[in-house]
């Protein structure tokens, strides 16, 4: 007696069969372009984050330099004879 197959098992078996036949085409036409788009977006975000961190570093350096400058001015005012 032949075993009855449900429609889902027939559907899944057909998908597996087509995937096995066209695995190279699926990888070249669907997976690789999708991964390229994802990595391209990641590179844009990483570039943006890099620029923001670089600006923060520059601002910290400027802040430190101005702090040293004003400390020297305050030191001169405190130590000057009045």
Shape: rod-shaped
Helix content: over 70%
Q: β content, as a range?
A: under 5%
Q: Helix segment count?
A: 2
* Main structural class: mainly alpha
Short description:
The chain contains 2 helices and no strands. By secondary structure, the protein is mostly helical.
Task: Kindly describe this structure.
With 82 residues, the protein is mostly helical. It contains two helices and no strands. The mean pLDDT is 85.
Defining traits:
single chain, mainly alpha
Secondary-structure blueprint:
Elements: H1 7-21, H2 23-79
């Amino acid at each position: 007696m032949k075993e009855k197959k449900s429609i889902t098992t027939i559907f899944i078996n057909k998908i597996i069969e087509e995937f096995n036949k066209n695995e190279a085409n699926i990888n070249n036409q669907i997976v690789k372009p999708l991964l390229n788009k994802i990595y391209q977006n990641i590179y844009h975000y990483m570039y943006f984050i890099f620029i923001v961190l670089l600006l923060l570093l520059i601002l910290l350096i400027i802040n430190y330099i101005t702090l040293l400058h004003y400390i020297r001015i305050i030191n001169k005012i405190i130590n000057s004879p009045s």
